[in-house]
Design brief:
The chain is of the alpha+beta class. The protein is 17% helix and 41% strand.
């Protein structure tokens, strides 16, 4: 089983709260599906350290990692992942396309228009039913 972390990055304004989603590169496994930014936890890293590193590498931003939002285990045909989603806030920088094909700020009502990685489905269902955490 591979330990993977992802960030639920929120952006709030007077009218709505949005979350950041990223589209995987076409040539990677599950190419062009949408996901939350993140990646594998490397040996010697805490999940929080891994998430800070992944956000810096993939988006060019520095995040403050908050509480764990959810954990799911999902088996793909080629691997099984333990996905830990953490709330995170951008402390420095503006998200850039350093590794992903695209990125979007979306509301919970928008997410049905995007094809996500299967491991994210339980997370998305919680967001649909409960809304975004404040």
């Amino acid at each position: 089983m591979i330990n993977v972390v992802a960030a639920l990055i929120l952006r709030r304004n007077a009218e709505k709260t949005e979350m950041l989603i990223c589209q995987r590169p076409a040539k990677k496994a599950r190419g062009l599906l949408w996901e939350f930014v993140g990646g594998k936890v490397e040996t010697g890293e805490t999940p929080q350290e891994a998430l800070v590193r992944e956000c810096r590498e993939e988006l060019g931003v520095i995040v403050a990692v908050g509480e764990q939002y959810m954990e799911v285990v999902h088996s793909y045909p080629d691997l099984t992942v333990r996905l830990s989603i953490y709330r995170a806030e951008i402390q420095e920088g503006v998200p850039q396309l350093l590794e992903h094909n695209d990125l979007q700020w979306v509301t919970p009502t928008d997410i049905s228009g995007f094809a996500f990685c299967p491991a994210d489905e339980n997370v998305l269902e919680r967001i649909r039913t409960e809304g975004l955490p404040l």
